[in-house]
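Exercise 7b. Backbone tokens:
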């Protein structure tokens, strides 16, 4: 059976190369099948549908040709070949493209590039989603990522702030990132200006890997607490404009600039596999991106009947999402001061959870006056920050910390 390359392409209507490749395919000048797409949205849909595609030819000047499109293609095992445009200057290889061809390429150029970057497929072969080549987590994370998650009202955002302030004592290389769908940290920090924020940071990483100066310009200094702050989305619906690959790159930009990145996430983790909905997985992409990179996940709950149940369910969701149980630390917020009551909570978590915690919870007693602290932007009390930072530092891999000695 003859081996052929099945190619999907997208370009402007008057692009010369687009018509030439179609002619080569129909006339037999090259052993290829060519599928024309009218937009990057159609190309993305064809790639995700599981049809047989060896490579995608994309015009550099077409709207929507960016890091996320390349990521979707790579995730499906489709090599992306960019046809250069002199008006567009981007490092396509850095964005994940397999190759770049000049506008006036020949059949030999195309076939040589396909042979070195794409898989040839037999005629009438059927490829399913199971054949997709999974994308690995981007290499190059420099600093540690600590994720904080909790159900609504549990105080996860305050715990995230406490961890960031505690880690910043003696170590100014700490960033607190609002990775939630609600953007609550702007309120807690009395932010007068909510731009730039997460959407702008992600957008800056959509087509390039910006230098540290650009990343720093997206952050807000919280001098009283010693950390930098990345504000979150301004409206809940803004998640629709944030694509997973660009979010991964943005998180990599933060970890390349800071020794510690503390991500406050929304604890919704359902994926397409759980619900059958791509839209739901996209909505929860920020949480999954943060968990992929996390050195430690801090789960926050309340010392109530429902609070303990929420913790048990959340731990199960995290384990189902691929987080190892040894990377999870439970924090009980507004905890009772009685040793007996704390022991009962610890026992309940151990006895009732399908995934019992590997270690005892960190208990944070209720502190009066936090509302005034938030309003004034003062430092959080040491009784809140010190135990949290101590727990985080003790659980992150000591070899990981050792490898970061001298990191600036």
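Sequence design result:
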């Amino acid at each position: 059976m003859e081996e052929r390359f099945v190619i999907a392409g997208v370009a402007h209507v008057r692009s010369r190369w687009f018509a030439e490749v179609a002619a080569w395919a129909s006339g037999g000048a090259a052993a290829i099948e060519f599928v024309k797409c009218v937009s990057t949205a159609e190309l993305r849909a064809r790639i995700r549908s599981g049809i047989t595609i060896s490579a995608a030819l994309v015009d550099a000047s077409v709207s929507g040709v960016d890091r996320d499109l390349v990521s979707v293609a790579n995730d499906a095992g489709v090599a992306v070949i960019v046809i250069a445009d002199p008006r567009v200057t981007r490092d396509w290889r850095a964005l994940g493209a397999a190759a770049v061809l000049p506008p006036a390429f020949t059949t030999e150029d195309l076939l040589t590039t396909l042979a070195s970057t794409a898989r040839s497929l037999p005629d009438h072969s059927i490829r399913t989603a199971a054949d997709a080549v999974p994308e690995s987590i981007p290499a190059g994370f420099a600093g540690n990522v600590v994720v904080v998650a909790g159900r609504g009202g549990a105080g996860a955002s305050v715990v995230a702030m406490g961890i960031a302030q505690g880690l910043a004592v003696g170590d100014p290389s700490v960033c607190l990132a609002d990775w939630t769908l609600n953007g609550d940290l702007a309120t807690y920090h009395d932010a007068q200006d909510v731009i730039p924020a997460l959407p702008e940071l992600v957008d800056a990483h959509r087509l390039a890997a910006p230098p540290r100066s650009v990343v720093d310009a997206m952050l807000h200094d919280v001098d009283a607490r010693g950390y930098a702050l990345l504000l979150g989305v301004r409206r809940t619906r803004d998640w629709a404009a944030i694509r997973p690959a660009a979010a991964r790159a943005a998180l990599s930009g933060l970890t390349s600039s800071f020794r510690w990145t503390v991500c406050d996430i929304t604890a919704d983790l359902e994926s397409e596999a759980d619900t059958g909905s791509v839209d739901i997985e996209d909505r929860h992409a920020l949480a999954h991106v943060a968990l992929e990179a996390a050195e430690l996940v801090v789960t926050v709950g309340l010392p109530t009947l429902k609070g303990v149940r929420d913790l048990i369910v959340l731990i199960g969701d995290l384990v189902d999402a691929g987080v190892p149980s040894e990377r999870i630390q439970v924090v009980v917020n507004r905890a009772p001061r009685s040793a007996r009551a704390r022991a009962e909570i610890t026992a309940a978590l151990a006895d009732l959870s399908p995934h019992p915690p590997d270690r005892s919870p960190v208990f944070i007693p209720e502190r009066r006056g936090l509302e005034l602290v938030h309003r004034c932007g003062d430092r959080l009390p040491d009784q809140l920050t010190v135990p949290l930072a101590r727990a985080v530092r003790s659980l992150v891999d000591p070899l990981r910390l050792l490898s970061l000695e001298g990191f600036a």
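Instructor comment: The radius of gyration is 24 Å. Residues 305-320 form the longest helix (16 residues).
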